[in-house]
Write a structure and sequence with these properties.
Blueprint: H1 11-17, E1 27-32, E2 35-40, E3 57-64, E4 72-77, E5 82-88, E6 91-96, E7 110-112, E8 115-117, E9 124-126, E10 132-134, E11 143-149, E12 152-158, H2 159-164, E13 187-190, H3 194-205, E14 212-215, H4 227-230, H5 244-249, E15 252-255, E16 260-264, E17 269-272, E18 277-279, E19 282-285, E20 289-291, E21 304-305, H6 310-320, E22 324-328, H7 332-341, E23 347-352, H8 359-362, H9 364-375, E24 379-383, E25 387-393, E26 396-402, E27 407-409, E28 412-415, E29 419-421, E30 439-440, E31 452-454, E32 459-463, E33 469-471, H10 476-490, E34 502-507, E35 510-516, E36 523-529, E37 534-541, E38 544-551, H11 556-565, H12 575-584
Parallel strand pairs: 13-14, 13-19, 14-15, 19-31, 21-28, 22-23, 22-28, 23-24, 30-32
Antiparallel strand pairs: 1-2, 3-12, 4-5, 5-6, 6-11, 7-8, 8-9, 9-10, 11-12, 16-17, 17-18, 20-29, 25-26, 26-27, 32-33, 34-35, 35-38, 36-37, 37-38
Helix pairs in contact: 3-10
């Protein structure tokens, strides 16, 4: 038996291109300002052969049918590129072998119930269609055609797809954009981070062909914000999530350096800071957080930074090179900045109120292990103290004075003491906001106001993993999913959020991966050698595992995430078995409930 792989258009996307009896694409109807409008998807002729250029096609025999057992994956080489060959439930599938997010090898990921999960950051892809089903990342995997002949497996694929290892879903375009009133849009998205961009893209992927406007206080198009602290010298164009041409092609308008000052939900009007008003039909609020600043004397001195933009990060790197750096706050941002600058600066000092970094999030043992790693890399900690004063010389930062009395030399100070939701402009709007300033939404990302949705770091939502407890999860992956769920429900799909939170942090070339929601954990069960930074930590609450973290133990976090996503419970007593089956033996049958 031979398996052949050929790039094909997934059925879900092909259906968008099917013609109606009158020769036009099936119309979608949306209401703008009370008037029904009919719009058609951009017409795409359906070709019987998806390969328009025969020279771009490669076909190769990659293995014998008996070489793969059910539940196994294999990276196969087609000569001009690789594919991921998968066998599940007796069927072969072939897709791109690299995660489109950061290029992780998916063969080292987790295969379960028709999807493969990335071992690094948890993105999930359907093995039949290649479609992305959980995040981070924007693109799907290319799907290749598999054929079996004479007990051999053949793959037929586009050379271009093998080289790019990514596929952007088919999207609609806006109809008659030039006819719109500039002060009116069907969908207004406030905020251009991951949540806002994914919302806009999902609308286009679902065939929405009316006007979409995104507005942001930033001067740049949407970019990969986590890299601001992980790769601080990256320029805006290097970390852009999509090129400028993408927004032009799919008619997603982005208003940069604009700020919404108020929202009138009764009239469905957003009022901008400069007085401009825009009417909307559906609204997404995805404004994220605003960094907290220091309240001590001298906080306005030059060379004191919150890392908010690429320019901030670039400026800090330039000023810190061979100089003295003080970082206030052992937050994720603070620790990542300290790690990035350790080899570049003359000295790096970190000031923190707690006695161990990450204690509330990772627990004391993991926090101490991470702290030791930093100390071994020349980072000096000043714990259980705060900044009382910043001193200057000729207008620039010279010293940081601590409440303990210690005076630190400082040419640059980076503040990472947390953030607050950027929702102040909504106080008089009637939109439900809790006591901490977070927008309250339901499982469909809807606020208490019809037609108004919210997503990302500025919201609290019901987390299925924790019995629908209202939580705030300021993670990059979660913002993506929020945006998708909001878009689907703007189109009345009735889709509820059920994803498992997943995050990562990178320091000194090592990563901590984390899945779940460990808030309020009462015990930590650690397997492996924490001193050697090769471990997995299970966070439990009342005997139930609520989160997991690991270093150098891939893909255990992605495996546990799949268990939690399936709605299964891991008990504290099961931890040894989970680690043994999933990591040491590689047995994945327990994921589907078929193992013991």
């Amino acid at each position: 038996v031979e398996v052949k792989i050929e790039v094909v258009i997934p059925e879900k996307e092909r259906s968008k291109e099917e013609m109606s009896p009158n020769g036009k694409a099936s119309p979608l109807i949306y209401k703008v300002n009370g008037t029904a409008r009919h719009y058609h998807l951009e017409e795409h002729p359906i070709a019987s052969n998806p390969y328009h250029n025969p020279k771009d096609v490669v076909e190769a025999s990659v293995c014998h049918v008996k070489d793969l057992e059910n539940g196994q994956m294999r990276e196969v080489d087609l000569g001009c590129g690789k594919a991921l060959l998968i066998k599940e439930s007796g069927e072969f599938h072939a897709v791109g072998h690299k995660c489109p997010h950061y290029g992780a090898p998916l063969v080292k990921g987790v295969l379960s119930k028709g999807r493969v999960r990335c071992p690094w950051h948890g993105a999930c892809f359907n093995i039949s269609t290649g479609d992305i089903e959980d995040f981070p990342g924007l693109d799907s995997l290319p799907r290749f055609q598999v054929k079996i002949e004479k007990e051999k497996v053949y793959i037929r694929a586009s050379k271009q797809a093998l080289q790019t290892q990514r596929r952007t879903k088919v999207m609609a375009k806006c109809i008659s954009l030039s006819n719109y009133n500039l002060s009116s849009t069907n969908v207004l998205i406030i905020g251009a981070g991951a949540a806002g961009l994914v919302c806009a893209e999902t609308l286009r992927q679902e065939g929405f062909s009316d006007r979409i406007v995104m507005c942001t206080m930033d001067r740049h198009l949407p970019y990969d914000r986590p890299k601001l602290s992980k790769s601080m010298d990256s320029h805006p164009e290097q970390i852009a999530l999509r090129p400028k041409e993408f927004f032009c092609t799919y008619d997603i308008e982005v208003l940069t350096e604009t700020q919404v000052a108020a929202v009138d939900v009764k009239s469905k009007i957003a009022v901008f800071k400069d007085g401009f008003k825009m009417e909307y039909n559906k609204l997404l609020i995805a404004t994220g957080n605003t960094p907290k600043t220091l309240s001590c004397k001298g906080k306005e001195i030059e060379n004191v930074f919150n890392i908010r933009t690429p320019e901030d990060a670039n400026r800090v790197v330039k000023l810190a090179t061979s100089k003295n750096v003080v970082i206030v706050g052992a937050s994720f941002l603070g620790m990542e900045v300290a790690a990035y600058l350790a080899e570049r600066a003359h000295s790096v000092s970190l000031v923190e109120l707690e006695h161990v970094p990450f204690k509330k999030f990772f627990g004391e043992r993991v926090g101490r292990a991470v702290m030791k790693m930093f100390e071994n890399n020349r980072v000096k900690f000043y714990m259980q103290t705060e900044v009382s004063e910043l001193r200057e010389q000729e207008g620039k930062l010279k010293e940081v004075v601590l409440k303990s009395g210690k005076v630190l030399r400082a040419d640059v100070c980076v503040v990472g003491v947390g953030a607050v939701p950027a929702t102040g402009f909504l106080k008089q709007s009637g939109i439900n906001i809790d006591s901490k300033g977070f927008i309250v939404v339901n499982k469909m990302m809807q606020t208490n106001i019809p037609g108004v949705f919210a997503a990302g770091d500025a919201v609290t939502f019901p987390l299925a993993l924790r019995n629908n407890k209202k939580v705030n999860v300021p993670h990059w992956q979660m913002a993506h999913m929020h945006g998708r769920i909001a878009a689907l429900n703007m189109l009345a799909h009735g889709t509820e959020i059920s994803t498992v939170p997943y995050l990562w942090t990178a320091m000194f070339g090592k990563s901590i991966r984390y899945a779940g929601h460990g808030e309020g954990f009462d015990d930590v069960v650690i397997q492996g050698d924490i001193d050697e930074l090769k471990f997995v930590a299970f966070y439990t609450k009342s005997d139930e595992v609520v989160a997991v973290a690991s270093m150098n133990y891939d893909p255990i976090v992605s495996k546990v995430a799949e268990v939690l996503a399936a709605g299964r419970t891991i008990r504290k007593r099961d931890v040894d078995t989970v680690v043994f089956l999933s990591f040491r033996t590689g047995d994945m049958s327990w994921l589907t409930g078929k193992g013991t």
